[in-house]
Specification:
This protein is of the alpha+beta class. 23% of the residues lie in helices and 31% in strands. The protein has one domain. The strands form two sheets. The protein has a 15-stranded mixed sheet that branches. Strands 16, 17, 18, 19, 20 and 21 form a six-stranded mixed sheet that branches. α5 packs parallel to α14. The longest helix is centred in the last third of the chain and has 25 residues. The radius of gyration is 24 Å and the shape is globular.
Length: 556
């Protein structure tokens, strides 16, 4: 997915509704809710080491939850739309689609770490390839993600276990030659516990992401990771992640929370961790996740939304102005993915006191009733009215190409209109307007971040995974935890080895499957991706226009 990156972190970010297979009859044991966190776990007379965990993820106005089951060398993570089975004893992960009764098997990497010798041999080869390709060295600099861990020494009892408070701050550092210098700062304030030792019997090794050598005409940064501080992480039971992108009047701040609401040590039926006998093997990612092949996002396929009833609306806080966003209407002659752009537009309303969620209905009356149910103050309808593309060139384009900047890019111009209705007074729009945007020819990792929606904080999309070279969600969303890749890729000593989050592992597998299958909801062809980026820029202006006209006051 080239354009709708969803941030990441703690944000392991994310979400899920447990509408899925919920085989409670297979689960036996004493449970605890969040309200009973102060009490001790009571073991049955027969010692058990299996686990069931329910986690709720909140980003803005939306709440998702998922359920994780752990039994020895096997894990099951249930998302509202899919299930991940990690079978470490068989060295594989199985992705299930319960609605379609299809599955796919992913073999685990035998040796995800490249040896120093292999890495050393790669550099001369890539230099030779670059010379053969035209003699131009790749442009770009170094982007370093520095993460500092701090153990606050605070402790408390959570679900009968001692939880420790660890703070992590990740800062993007760039050198003078970096392609994109947009500042990014990610802070995660988390509480972590040690699960029964058997829960760690399964730590799936993630394969190193494929490394592609850029041509001499591309600007491409080398990504490095540094870690400072000492801390023992463990299993996250509560995290609050704040991501700040940009600076000045262009600064955007996103906050997400992930909190375990239920945890029990119990006895689980082994059949939960097997492929159901009535499931058939999918021929490819398209058959396994048909919704994405039809333009839906990974977030839709996995978690649903408030628009389809699979996600919940978070309780609205005092002073918050909530906007229900309808799927944009495309009235232009250009094909665009309105499902993905819908997510993007929702994500534009992230500055206090505003928040947004997706809204749908089969009639005006249905839409207004749903807006009331979700606590929306306003209903927004956006329309893409015009998309024009002209060939890049001219003297400026010639100079750019001559200087090694690559061939001139197409120039895209977008017009979009909007109508905003007050809930309960929809006979006439409260606000109307039109915005315009033109492509600037620059689309990189941070551009992708700024196009994010809920998933940005929750589960990330593929463009970010690739841009970050798959460092376990270091720059990714709500599924990929900011810390999720540390244990897999090493380089952080005991910190990485102590981190354990099956939800992040499951999201890594599903995202990799969708990306490898050519899915993701976003266009692959560069010019089309630039069109979507330009529409996103127009939506950015649209959101700013709406909030500026409304001001901070609550609707009357």
């Amino acid at each position: 997915m080239k354009f709708c990156a969803r941030l990441l972190t703690g944000f392991a970010i994310v979400l899920l509704c447990s509408f899925m297979l919920s085989p409670h009859s297979a689960v036996q044991g004493q449970s605890l809710s969040a309200k009973g966190a102060e009490t001790s776990l009571k073991q049955s007379s027969e010692p058990t080491r299996d686990l069931k965990v329910v986690t709720a993820y909140t980003q803005g106005a939306q709440v998702f939850q998922n359920t994780t089951y752990i039994k020895g060398a096997r894990q099951r993570v249930e998302f509202p739309g899919m299930v991940s089975l990690v079978q470490c004893d068989l060295h594989r992960t199985v992705i299930l689609n319960p609605a379609a009764k299809r599955y796919m098997i992913q073999a685990h990497a035998a040796n995800p770490q490249a040896s120093p010798g292999q890495a050393a041999q790669a550099a001369p080869q890539s230099s030779l390839e670059s010379s053969l390709a035209g003699g131009q060295a790749p442009r770009g600099g170094v982007v370093t993600w520095l993460t500092t861990f701090t153990d606050t020494r605070e402790r408390q009892q959570m679900f009968g276990l001692e939880a420790r408070r660890i703070r992590a701050v990740t800062i993007k550092q760039v050198d003078a030659n970096a392609c994109d210098k947009t500042p990014i700062r990610i802070e995660t304030d988390g509480w972590y516990v040690d699960l029964p030792q058997s829960a760690f019997a399964c730590k799936k090794p993630d394969a190193l992401p494929e490394q592609t050598e850029p041509s001499g005409k591309e600007c491409h940064d080398r990504v490095e990771m540094r870690v400072e501080g000492q801390a023992v992480l463990g299993f996250p039971v509560k995290t609050v992640t704040t991501t700040v992108i940009g600076e000045g009047d262009k600064q955007e701040t996103f906050t997400s929370t992930a909190e375990v609401t239920f945890l029990e040590v119990t006895t689980l039926d082994a059949s939960l961790f097997e492929i159901p006998s009535d499931y058939a093997a999918a021929s490819g990612a398209t058959e396994l996740i048909p919704a994405m092949a039809q333009g839906a996002s990974l977030e839709d396929a996995l978690f649903g939304s408030t628009a389809d009833g699979k996600a919940m609306a978070a309780p609205k806080k005092p002073g918050v102005i909530r906007i229900g966003v309808l799927e944009p209407i495309n009235r232009s002659t250009r094909t665009v993915n309105t499902r993905m752009l819908w997510l993007d537009l929702v994500g534009k309303f992230s500055k206090a006191p505003y928040e947004a969620l997706r809204l749908s209905g089969t009639s005006a009356a249905d839409i207004e009733a749903e807006a009331n149910r979700l606590g929306c103050d306003y209903i927004l309808l956006a329309e893409i009215t015009e998309v024009k593309t002209s060939k890049g060139g001219g003297f400026g384009g010639f100079l750019k190409a001559a200087s090694g900047g690559g061939p001139p890019k197409d120039v895209h111009e977008v017009k979009a209109g909007y109508r905003l209705f007050a809930t309960g007074a929809t006979s006439a729009p409260r606000l109307t307007g039109e915005v315009k945007a033109s492509s600037g020819g620059k689309f990189g990792f941070d551009s992708a971040l700024q196009m994010a929606s809920f998933g940005m904080q929750m589960y990330s999309s593929f463009s970010m995974m690739r841009a970050m070279k798959g460092f376990g969600g270091m720059g990714l969303f709500p599924g990929m935890n900011l810390l999720g890749g540390f244990g897999s890729f090493g380089g952080v000593g005991g910190i990485g080895q102590s981190y354990f989050d099956p939800s992040s592992m499951a999201m890594n597998s599903i995202m990799g499957l969708a990306a490898g299958g050519g899915l993701g909801g976003a266009p692959v062809e560069p010019s089309q991706a630039e069109v979507h980026q330009t529409v996103s820029s127009a939506f950015d202006s649209l959101a700013k226009a709406v909030t500026a006209k409304l001001g901070p006051a609550k609707p009357k």
